[in-house]
Specification:
single chain, 330 residues, mainly alpha, two-stranded antiparallel sheet, 13 helices, 73% helix
């Protein structure tokens, strides 16, 4: 509930102050949307539970990409979500996700002695790539160099700042003071809950005899991804099909940047300590992201059991990925 209110008040503050178009505004929006992951990262790094942190950050990409399956199920009409997107912006966002995850994988191969202070060069490179990515993305939105024709598409609003014709902006009748109060309260509750999730999650993993990477990539990633599921379903109901994919890919790209925070808190590079299970999860995340990026271009038309062919493929690949994760983690 705090995550939902945090998302809505972030949109309201963005609309009133108009800072979302600026690079700094996009960074602030990304941080606000990833507070659960940030809390788990800081708490886990302080406690030395780096396998849980890495599993949540890398494994969370695969699971939160699979959230699009749930959103696809709630789409109304005969066409799947990827058919209705009607924009190439999510493809660009997916490429940013793939780039930063690939950099993390390369950083895992570097020896621990290769560092800049207590930080891995790959952690810095991931943040730099993400910043360049959102700069390019912002330019592409403002001045597109191409024209795409997608008959039958219903992309919806290009950004949450645009008013919806059926639903007013969140907290449109509330004072700025009230919006800021709810935003701060949502931050405090979300951060506190994130710390409790990390502590309780680590204890549950130990009692169940689960690998920290496995638990972080599944149960913990699902818990920290609940706000994305709620906001994604709400966006689908409003017809904002492009925003659904943009929110998921944007959150995944920023999530990888939190390895820099983990390095600073832990006092040493975290990436060299990653195990094979983390690399497997990163590969699964790249494959799932690529499937949806390709589907936006190919635009599947049929739905089976309310899912497009791309979402069915994602379910199968994700299931295989979890089975492979259990095998690799042994």
């Amino acid at each position: 509930m705090a995550g939902v209110y945090l998302s809505r008040t972030t949109d309201a503050i963005d609309i009133r102050l108009g800072f979302g178009e600026a690079l700094g505004g996009m960074i602030l929006l990304a941080i606000a949307g990833s507070l659960p992951e940030l809390a788990v990262t800081v708490s886990g790094a302080l406690a030395g539970n780096l396998d849980l942190v890495a599993g949540n950050l890398i494994g969370g990409i695969a699971l939160q990409t699979a959230v699009l399956v749930i959103c696809d199920f709630f789409v109304s009409g005969e066409r799947p979500l990827s058919h209705l997107v009607g924009s190439l912006i999510p493809v660009l966002e997916a490429s940013i996700v793939i780039m930063v995850v690939a950099v993390v994988l390369m950083g895992a191969l570097l020896p621990a002695s290769v560092s800049i202070g207590s930080v891995s060069p790959a952690s810095i490179a991931a943040v730099v790539l993400w910043l360049l990515g959102i700069y390019v993305l912002n330019r592409a939105r403002k001045a597109p160099r191409w024209q795409a024709s997608a008959p039958g598409s219903r992309p919806g609003r290009p950004h949450r700042r645009v008013a919806h014709h059926e639903q007013p902006h969140p907290f449109s009748n509330a004072s700025m003071g009230r919006v800021v109060f709810i935003f701060v309260a949502g931050c405090v509750i979300t951060l506190t809950a994130g710390v409790l999730l990390e502590v309780a999650g680590n204890e549950l993993a130990n009692r169940a005899g689960l690998n920290g990477v496995v638990f972080g990539a599944t149960v913990l990633a699902l818990a920290t991804g609940l706000p994305e599921i709620s906001s994604g379903i709400a966006a689908v109901h409003l017809g904002d099909h492009q925003l659904v994919m943009s929110d998921v890919f944007g959150g995944n790209a920023f999530q990888v940047c939190l390895f820099l925070v983990a390095d600073l808190v832990a006092g040493h590079p975290v990436l060299p300590s990653l195990v094979h299970a983390n690399s497997w999860l990163a590969g699964v995340g790249i494959v799932l992201t690529s499937v949806y990026a390709a589907a936006v271009i190919l635009r599947p038309q049929r739905r089976i059991l309310r899912l497009g062919g791309d979402s069915i493929a994602v379910v199968v690949i994700f299931a295989i990925g979890i089975l492979g994760l259990l095998a690799v983690s042994r």
